[in-house]
Design a protein that fits this description.
By secondary structure, this protein is mainly α. Helices cover 55% and strands 6% of the residues. Its main location: membrane.
Amino acid sequence: MTTRGVEPAQRWWDTCDRPHEHWLMRESAQTRWPRSLLLEVCLRIVFPTVLLLAIYLLFAGHTRAGGGFSAGLVAGLAFVLRYVAGGSVTGSRDSWVQPPVVIGSGLVVVVASALVPTFFGLPVLSSAVWTVEVPLLGSVKIASSLAFDVGVFLLIVGVVLNLLRTLGEGIQLGELESELNDQPGDAS
């Protein structure tokens, strides 16, 4: 992406939240952090499976154990596993999804789902249930509080991604400092 013809405000928005240095390992980079082939291969199977489990927990949270918080923690653990394996946290290095945006959108969804019932004369956080006929699944009950759970899910996943990004920047600074201290230099 070139920066010619892009307004300064848009360029700032696109780059304000990105780290100024690449702190996650690249596939071609030789670093001190050894990569495990077994962990990377297992991650290709486990990561989508854990995300599917998180989605199940998100939707099953009203009638069974689960909900937005537990689904967000499970999805966050999948991203932690991806980070530990040495891969990218968000899936690609030039991701357009920034963790503070995910956190903010989760907060907006939570607040909106809490306040919408007041427009219909109901108390805050009131919930309604609809029954929908789905062709292969039959009759499915959908609660309006699912929107609240989705907001909490986004909030938790955004916090975990932001934590991993911050942790990665700290690790990279520590590696840079140790490299600078290891290099022989002038003692003047």
